[in-house]
């Protein structure tokens, strides 16, 4: 499945999640997808993105490692395992940036309602990883724009704030 479809599926699943355990599970899925996209771009993406893409993969992997979903998904349940192609790097990075912004917001919600310190600190570390991952995405968009491979000046809505497509008139079609 192409990256944009997986990103949209992740955004929809995260938006539908209500309970903290479901949110944490979807955040884990989203971080795994960011890791897979970063790995793919590091190996076969535009040369100007490869270093940042490797960093994205490492940071997103850290985001997965700090979270303890109530039930670890089996290999067939990991959405990122279905990644077959990146497609347009610019569009994929815009979508991934939006997803990572939503991940951070969802984690703040879980952290605010956490019953114990353990979950609170897991959320804080995962927020940090998502934020750093999003920073890598923004840098890759800037590099694409400088090299002429991007459609705009490097992020549009992502540079202005939260980074979700709703403010740009594009929301996921869940």
Keywords, please?
single chain, 174 residues, mainly alpha, Ferritin, 6 helices, 66% helix, globular, DUF6099
Outline the fold blueprint.
Blueprint: H1 3-16, H2 20-44, H3 50-66, H4 89-112, H5 117-147, H6 157-160
Helix pairs in contact: 1-2, 1-4, 2-3, 2-4, 3-5, 4-5
Radius of gyration: 15 Å
Domains counted in the coordinates: how many? Answer: 1
Total of DSSP H or I helical runs spanning 4+ residues: 6
Second CATH tier, the architecture: Up-down Bundle
Strands, count: 0
Helix content: 55-70%
By CATH reckoning, the class would read: Mainly Alpha
Structural class: mainly alpha
Encode the helix/strand succession as letters.
HHHHHH
InterPro entries: DUF6099 (IPR046081)
Pfam families: DUF6099
Region (Disordered): 147-174
Biased composition (Gly residues): 147-158
Descriptive overview:
- α2 (20-44) runs antiparallel to α3.
- It is globular, with a radius of gyration of 15 Å.
- The protein is built from six helices and no strands.
- The chain has a single domain, classed as Up-down Bundle (Ferritin).
- With 174 residues, it is mostly helical.
- Residues 147-174 are annotated as: Disordered.
In short:
The protein has 174 residues and is mainly α.
């Amino acid at each position: 499945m192409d990256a944009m479809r997986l990103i949209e599926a992740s955004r929809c699943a995260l938006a539908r999640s209500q309970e903290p355990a479901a949110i944490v599970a979807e955040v884990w899925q989203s971080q795994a997808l960011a890791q897979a996209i970063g790995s793919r771009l590091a190996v076969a993406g535009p040369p100007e993105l490869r270093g940042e893409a490797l960093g994205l993969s490492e940071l997103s992997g850290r985001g997965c490692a700090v979270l303890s979903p109530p039930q670890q998904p089996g290999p067939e349940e990991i959405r990122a395992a279905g990644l077959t192609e990146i497609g347009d790097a610019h569009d994929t990075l815009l979508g991934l940036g939006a997803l990572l912004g939503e991940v951070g917001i969802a984690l703040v919600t879980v952290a605010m309602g956490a019953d114990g310190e353990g979950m609170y600190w897991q959320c804080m570390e995962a927020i940090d990883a998502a934020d750093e991952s999003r920073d890598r995405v923004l840098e890759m968009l800037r590099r694409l724009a400088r090299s002429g491979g991007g459609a705009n000046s490097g992020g549009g809505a992502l540079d202005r704030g939260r980074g979700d497509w709703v403010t740009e008139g594009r929301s996921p079609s869940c």
